[in-house]
């Protein structure tokens, strides 16, 4: 209301001062108070002024003063000269020109302006506004699209890095495998040589004593060891591989280690591993059993390799037994579990860890003692374990038919694998626990016994593939149990129901089955430092060691 009052006061105020309006100049269209009338007339003495009471005012056009004839207003428009002129101009300089009343020109011009205004207001502004809305939509779409491109680019960057990491992880594993194999062979010869040297030195010392002896019986009792010592240990020649690479910028990247070749083709963003002399399938065709022996564990529930010749095993008792490839017991760890360990595994530092589901702990064995390193979340119980290359520990947690996997870095949980990107549970509810491993590309591969399938999940929780056993063509339902990966990133899954091993590539594609080695109810599975498979047969309590690489 104060704003309306203010506008009313402006209308009723004198144009020369703030006094109330009483008079009005029709010629100049000026609001005046009584005191300012004379001021206005004096200021424009050359012009005529029609001063009337404000109520009698006449709203009209204010004609400009003629610049040539003082006191005259330009009330006419000269079309020839395109300028306003006064009456004196019409009979003077503009005599004979086409002249029209100025107010008609102004009226016509105002109509044109009005028409233009209406067109701008009713047509052009809405049209531009609509175009502006559309361009904003396009800006939003472009922004969203480029954000998606940036995200995809980052994903591709990670994929490229994973491919490179996978290649060099494989070569790292192969180098260590070759190193362990060659050093074991050389060390074996070395130990034999040192032992023989000690025996020969002792024999020489004894022979010299006998030569000094005066007692006939000492001389006659001496038996020659020369034939034994002349049986020189078989020498071996170690052929160490060389690492060759082709890293010309912008070209295909290639690296070779012995018979193994890996290439990274940049445009296609794909990696292929090729055996120069032997394909993977041919390697499996040459698979053979190199050891088979019974154990005291019946049922044989769990097995995890330790080095190149040994493995830790356990059944349904409190003991975890270390056994070598010949079946001889090397060590026994008696746990504090009430019944038996729910899971066993060896860390990167070769320390034994086991889970105690009743006490809800994961424990490590060091220096003859046991230390708790993980306490399960409230209500959950820890079962099977897996120690990753990075030093993390994957723990299968179970409660009332529900499974999940927690990744621990020390005591801290850094990942939970339980639902996919859509919020759907990854693992089927049921009474059975999970088996798990980690592939060279960082995917966590899981045997879901309740769902009768194998699922691979990446570090971000996205499912990479699911395998249901159907490509193998086996008669019985797929019964996945323990699973492992080898140095070539193959995924090997024990099939309890079909007495075989499924071999998959790292993308979950079926390659073949190993089913000719009498693998009755395979349950435990592990890979030793030589790349050999140790297969534990659950009910028979037998371990079969298979070499295929």
TrEMBL record:
Superkingdom to which the source organism belongs: Eukaryota
A GO molecular function held by the record: zinc ion binding
Keyword Flavoprotein part of the UniProt annotation: no
Gene it is expressed from: LOC111103529
GO biological process, one term: protein monoubiquitination
Residue span, B box-type domain: 9-54, 58-102
Protein name: Uncharacterized protein LOC111103529 isoform X1
A Pfam family assignment: zf-B_box
Chain segments annotated as transmembrane: none
SUPFAM superfamilies listed in its UniProt record: B-box zinc-binding domain (SSF57845), NHL repeat (SSF101898)
CDD domains: Bbox2
Keywords for this protein: Metal-binding, Zinc, Zinc-finger
